[in-house]
Every structure is written in C-alpha cells, then in structure tokens.
Amino acid sequence: MSDERLTRRDLLKRAAAAGLAAYGLTELTGLSPLGEAGAAQAAPEPTIAVASDREPAQLVRAAVEALGGMDKFVRRGATVLVKPNIAWTRRPEQAATTNPEIVAEVVRLCRAAGARQVKVMEHSVDRPDAVLPEITGIGPAAQRAGATVTMASSPALYQRLRLPRGKAVTQVDVLREVMRADVFINVPIAKVHSATDLTLGLKNLMGVIWDRGAYHSSPSLDQAIADFAGQVKPHLVVLDAYRVLLSNGPKGPGRTKDLRTVVVGADPLAVDAYGAKLLGREPGRVNHLARAREMGVGELDLARIKIRNV
Fold it and tell me: Considering the entire predicted model, what is its pTM?
C-alpha cells in the first residue's frame, strides 16, 4: 500500500472543498474531501433536509432537491464514489444494509447531474463478499441506475493515510477511491449497534478502511471513528431511515420499524445528530458523535441546525 503525500496547496484546496459543500456551493469538481489538517469546520447553522412518508426514491429526490439539487455537489464529467452499507448477508427488509432503491436513486441523480462515472464500493464484514450485492439488492439496483459495484476486499485497493490529529489511531489504510473521487457520497442506514450504540454516517465510514481490527484494538473505538471523521469528510450524506433496525444491531435479525424517512446534508455530524434523534437518542450522549464534535467534524446541537422538512 502506498503512502501518498499531499502538498500544502492540495490540503488547503481539499479543506476548502469540504467547507463549500457545507454551504451547498458548487465549486467541488476535482477536489477531494480529504485534508491532512482535518476537515473544515461546518458552516454556521448547517442545513439538512428531511423527507418523510413517500417511497424511498421519492424521499431521496425530495431531500436532495431541498438542498438545491445534486448538481450543487456533482458537476458534469465528475467521478463519484458512493458508499452504502453492504456489509452483511441480509435482505433489504431486514434493515441491516442500505435500502437498494435509496442507493439507486443517488446513482440516478448523480448521472442526471452529468457524472462521468459513479462507483459504488464497500469493504464488507460478512464473507464471501461476492454474494452480498445480490443478497442486499444493492448490486442489481445500482447497476441498473448506471453505477459499477465493487466489493473492496483486496489490500491493493487501499493506501496509507496519516491522521496527525488522531487520539486513538494516527494512521489508516483507506480505500484509494476515496482519495481520487471528485465527489464522495456516504449512504448509510440508521440502526442500533452493539459496540457504539448507533451506527449512522460516521460509523459507516469504517467500510472504506482496510483494517477494522485496528479501531477495535485501539484505546477507544468511539475515538477512532471520530479521528477518521475529523479528516475524511464526505461531500454529501444521504441517511437511510426508511426502515431501521432497533435490536440485535448491527447485523440482526432484529426488531425493525418503518420510519419512512431520508436525511440529507453536507455536514456529516448534523445528519447523524438528526438520525440519533430519530432512533430515540440524545445526540450528545452518543459517544462517537460527541467525540467527533470535539474534533471539529460538524454541528451536533439540533438547535443550531437548519432543518428543511419536505
């Protein structure tokens, strides 16, 4: 795995790109969400869009449109990386993986905005991972919408990334496409988790690193999640809360509930804060979210977040 060093100019450009995304601006083409100095602070009163009580694809369209449309984030000719949860051998109705129609609609919107290529990628937990796209339904749905789907199970797909501000982990091997894509979109599912209470957007980013064990063997799993989120910031988060898993997470099977909701925003912590509330938690009491706030990832206080209900 290579260790690709970034120039100071590159870092400033990339941090600026993350900040622009938080404001919903369009100057994103060719800029990565990464920055060795850490992700840019969220804009004052970040905005999220919450769509409810429609079919999955309609929810995605409504929420993205409420933020100004996908072309605010994806320019013509861009390469887009979409990261859903495809970690488990579970069917869509079991709510352990991202709803395939939500993933497909994200792909369709990126294509409609002029994306040259949309790549759906995941480093799964269950094996053999070759069967997971079909079992979860994400593979066929994303491919029909115009994406390629890759299960990132080879170490050759990763490169070393330093986390100079990290407290629990100071380096990780990250999926190279995260570094190379013009636009990085995180598409997690909201559910409970036995180790971190909840898994939302920040936790879903564990699917773009090679060695999950390094997080679990670190002094704090919650802090490791925050360390990574403090440096790797998606341009957009589309949180699937259509059907959520409320017990035996993260894999289930367990009790599910239909919330018929999608939450979209450029501030990953603001999206997770709303997701935590949907699942009956106070955002500040979810440890990895509180630690991410300390790392400057974004806004955790719902009173300081502008919420567009559509």
Answer: 0.89
